[in-house]
Design a protein that fits this description.
This protein is an alpha/beta fold. 38% of the residues lie in helices and 20% in strands. It has eleven helices and 15 strands. It is globular and about 65 Å long.
Length: 317
């Protein structure tokens, strides 16, 4: 048990999501009073709700107004903001979700005397200059720190674990398709009049286990004015991640290299769907490797033995 947070009132914005559900579960083990703030209509939660009756409350919010937020954050001691989206809709733009809402939460936290505010962003957004997602995340960080100077900013690499949208996504594709796409795994360059195909250009990830991320969040939850990049112990390309997933189930699939320009065309067509599997902005994000040696060093400061994808993925797929 973390005695620094035991007994405190903790508010988790986005607590019904993948990372949020794991965080809430661990907060309950630390005897915290937890308020989950969600924009969805989901009332029945798929994770453990407290060690005692009333330990966890689910509060739906439709309007992030000053009045609503001040009511929610009254007497709160620690606030986590995990709200985020991967693609835009008419109702939810990157600016609204990653900039405007975090700014209002941070301002309310300041007004209500919240001691600790932890804002979860994303790794290497300062390098993805062509991505609207990354730019909105970066702007959101700046707005949050302006409103609440003592904010702790967390920038994790891609997060995996039970309920994720990363390994489970490709695992589900492998169940119905004989082909798995390797986006960005080839690059076509022009030298004079002849094109050169580079088959060694691969997107790299340094996935972090959600259990390690949550442990880190709990460990730093009473700190102030910090910035942490976070990454797992192993750097892997798409094909290596596919190998790990398929080997667990003893499957074999064909890997189809798709260069970035082709992925952009495919994403353009997929954006017609209500819930697109891929967007052009996500392709732009993939052009920057999601890795950080400093991120792994930061993780090891608070998590003794970080887990790799190879050791965990077989426990939940």
């Amino acid at each position: 048990m973390n005695f620094k947070i035991s007994g405190k009132k903790v508010v988790v914005f986005g607590g019904t999501g993948f990372i949020g559900s794991h965080l809430v579960n661990n907060l309950c083990k630390n005897a915290c009073q937890v308020d989950i703030i969600t924009r969805s209509n989901k009332r029945k939660l798929d994770f453990f709700l407290g060690n005692e009756p009333g330990q966890v409350r689910v509060i739906k919010i439709d309007n992030f107004s000053k009045e609503n937020l001040d009511k929610i954050l009254k007497n709160a001691e620690i606030v986590f903001n995990l709200i985020g989206i991967l693609y835009e809709t008419k109702k939810n733009t990157f600016k609204k979700v990653h900039v405007d809402i975090p700014k209002e939460i941070a301002a309310s936290a300041k007004r209500n005397g919240v001691r600790n505010f932890i804002h979860v962003s994303a790794l290497n957004i300062d390098k993805s200059l062509n991505s609207f997602y990354a730019n909105s995340k970066l702007l959101g960080e700046n707005e949050v720190k302006e409103e609440f100077p003592n904010t702790v900013i967390i920038r994790p690499s891609v997060v995996f674990g039970k309920g994720d949208n990363f390994t489970n996504f490709f695992f589900n594709i492998s169940k119905i398709s004989p082909i798995l796409p390797l986006i960005g795994s080839i690059e076509i360059k022009r030298k004079k009049i002849f094109p050169i195909v580079d088959f060694n250009k691969k997107v790299k990830f340094q996935p972090i286990y959600v259990g390690d991320l949550v442990s880190f969040l709990l460990s730093i939850s009473t700190l102030k004015r910090k910035n942490y990049d976070l990454a797992g112990p192993t750097v892997q390309s798409f094909d290596q991640i596919f190998d790990t997933i398929l080997n667990i189930k003893k499957r074999k699939r064909i890997y189809l290299p798709i260069p970035f320009f082709a992925a952009q065309i495919i994403a353009f067509l997929l954006e017609i769907l209500p819930n697109p599997l891929l967007t052009r902005d996500q392709v732009r994000l993939l052009m920057v490797d999601n890795i950080s040696s400093k991120g792994f060093s930061n993780l090891k400061q608070f998590v003794k033995n970080p887990s790799s994808l190879q050791t965990i993925v077989g426990t939940y797929i």
